[in-house]
Amino acid sequence: MQLGFGDGWVSPKIGQNAALERLSKEVDWRRFEALLEFTEPQGPGRPPKERLLMLKALLLQQWYGLSDADLEDALNDRMSFRRFVGLALETPAPDHTTLCRFRNQLAEDRLSERLFGEFSRQLESRGLILKKGTMIDASLVETPFRPGSSDGSRQPVDPDAKLTARKGRRGTHYGYKMHAGVDQKSRLIRRLTLTPANVNDTVPADALVCGDEAAVYADKGYAKAQRRALLRSRGIKPRIMHKSWGGGPPLSIWQKRHNALIAPIRAAVEGVFATLKRWFGYARVRYCGMCRNESHLQLLGLAYNMQRALKLA
Length: 313
Fold this sequence. Notes:
The structure is a single chain. With 313 residues, this protein is an alpha/beta fold. It contains eleven helices and six strands. It has helices at 18-26, 29-36, 51-64, 68-77, 79-85, 96-108, 112-125, 225-233, 253-266, 269-279, 290-312; strands spanning 134-142, 162-165, 172-183, 189-196, 215-218, 237-240. Strands 1, 2, 3, 4, 5 and 6 form a six-stranded mixed β-sheet that branches. Strand 2 (162-165) and strand 3 (172-183) form a beta hairpin. The longest helix is centred in the C-terminal third of the chain and has 23 residues, at 290-312.
């Protein structure tokens, strides 16, 4: 990651990017480099670039919404990008096929989740994760790979994506569903997972609980007596909205008051989903298959937390 001799002749003010410079200093990149040492060579052809350089390039891709080809062009064109990843002036940027192979390798080795967890530990050591509460929720994500015909004559292009109907809304949804556990005060993502769209929100809910938070906030879709009892047994306050079951008694005045107090608190998680979809371009998945899309979601969560940490610090 050493810069070249030609960089000494370039003014330090050229290609300045305050956010990227702060990330270069505030993030302990050596810990990521240690995790990436477990990756295997990418096969025959061009020699692999430094793995940390490739990881930083993929993070730039998330922050700026670039395709692989656009990322290659940007690395060759933008001085701030080259400084962030550690490319000398005379060094060519990795091409888009090299970037694609490295991303696929992260998915195959399931390293994206470990990279996300490593930065979560760094955030915790810096005191940015407050643990006052965890907001859990889910959001549908479409896929551009459409299913086959309704008569079953053609198989779906993406076999891992599933079809579901959105309650209270017309039409169906084909794709995936992301589930997140978000720190209440800091709005940092603590847990992320991806499922087919037809999986009920409550199925992966318990895995989104970290165990060290003071409370768990969730809407009535997560209402379950067994879950409330489990949280209490772990010393966690179950701030889950109540719902009236079909044919059962209506909500009591106390339960309605309980829901009114929780609703504005747990609704803050929607802002995290909105950021991922609008600013990070995650309105639909980019790849085909659960493995690659799950790895991309973890990488996306890592990029979000890094950007969020800049604002908190």
